[in-house]
Give the backbone structure.
Amino acid sequence: MCGIVGYVGPQAAVEVVGEGLRRLEYRGYDSAGVALVAKGGVVTEKRAGKLANLTEAISQRSDINDQHTGIGHTRWATHGVPNDRNAHPHVSSNGRVAIIHNGIIENFTRLRAELEADGVELASDTDSECVAHLLERQLDTGGDLADAMRRVCNRLQGAFTLLAVHADAPDTVVGARRNSPLVAGVADGEYFLASDVAAFISHTRSAVELGQDQVVTISPDGLAITDFDGNPAAGKHFEVDWDASAAEKDGHDFFMFKEIAEQPKAVADTLRGRFAGTGEISLDEIRMSDQDFRDIDKVIIVACGTSYHAGMVAKYAIEHWNRLAVEVELASEFRYRDPILDRSTLVIAISQSGETMDTLMAVRHAKEQKARVLAISNTVGSTIPREADAVLYTRAGIEVAVASTKAFLTQLVACYLVGLHLAGVRGIKFADEVAAIVTELAATPDKIATVLSGMQPVRDLAAAMPNADRALFVGRHVGYPVAMEGALKLKELAYMHAEGFAAGELKHGPISLIEDGTPVIVVVPSPRGRSVLHDKVVSNIQEVKARGATVIAIAESGDDIISAHADHTVFLPVVPTLLAPLLTAVPMQVFAAELATAKGLDVDQPRNLAKSVTVE
Ligand code: F6R
């Protein structure tokens, strides 16, 4: 979702800001723009579509070149269609203030009406443009850009990261944040502001996390932070522990292929050092005592999209290991149904980005109801972990492709660890029982590597069906959420109609979708697990085969019964039933990515999608 970059320093701002926007492309966008400021005033350029359109437009301009202060934006449309007019920056009526915005200003209708009543002509359909005009008005009443920003922010409702420049302050960028991400980068004599550190990682790893409701000013003299009332405030300094090369493709055509290949390492990194051998796992930050964990009588998992599917798998593991009721809920639905929760409820919020607005709002609702919140996130210092009572960070490294892969597997690992931690602390499992499962978990990175090395048949299958118009995914038990994840991957990457079902539900409706040749991907439970599950899936395969489906089965190595029924079988290494999603998800990812490639689509940045969804 929208990417934001600001720069002051000795370099050409258009270059630094342009590079930052390129590094933020993965967040998803449909237009882009820059504003540069120098003594002569503010100049802007903006274009709908990809960054290449903006770069081309800038190359035609003789007045955008050596300014040393600038802001840049990639927009993911919320208010107003994606076109040049609605792209950011937006400029005030006198042309002296330019702003960029990420988020939604909820009271913009009222603000817009007020401005229009005062004779202001708005040039776009966006909620954001109001801020440029409001800043101009505040500047007219006195004070500098930061003063104006504070006064304007106090009038805004909703979520926003804002950056502004002003013709009268050619060495300054002012930023502000509420419920939306903003981080500062500090280098020698130059300063950066951005939605995330990827934007300035090639310049500095020294970063400052901005708090909620803070205004920040960067100039060659330094960085100053206040709250919205002007009281001095401090940001939290941290060093970024990855570098620019981690954000490159490493020889792969798309980041997604690189990220799929990185999964054994991501899983191993997430497990590393987490298990003390006493049945306890080390959470990264805990503001909860062991007694708090013992007092829990219900778990509710909230998340969106792929993270929600990780939560669905977690339900099976946590309930089985703890005999504790677990609900899983889409974060976007959670607070609107008045859920029943109190101080003995543990809410687990899963979010790769740590910034998903739906999940953040669910966390806030849970905290208002006095529930304990544990965050599982891949982004250190992001908002959801900061607001949670306890945090377990996944260590997937930066995930650039919009479709989540390695983050998903590491979320599964984190969920397993949390389930085992609860079982240990609550005395439901002995330390040696926990250790036995952890040993199995520790063996999964090698098994995932084995899965990856056997993916050629999956690639061939995908490459052979670019013209398929639909696919069904089915599974039982933990295979059911994996089927849903497989369908989501195919939908988002290959723009195909794909649905994931519990295999038992097929005959209650979806089976009517099956025609001759319809691909049905079946996640088969281990025949060594509860044999009734395996037998039932065999029946389900027969049901769809009888109606003409082409069955691709994902089964455990040695499962000869399945290969006798399926058209194609992908065999995976043997793994305990509850841990199987760590392997079964991988062929789904490869299948979707290859099919999208065969269709000539942009695997990393599917249409209409954003990596970090910071609006509700
Ligand atoms: C799908 C995907 C999305 C995200 C969802 C939640 O591949 O990536 O469905 O999983 O937007 O994002 P986070 O985990 O950042 O809260």
In short: The first helix runs from residue 13 to 23. The mean pLDDT is 93.
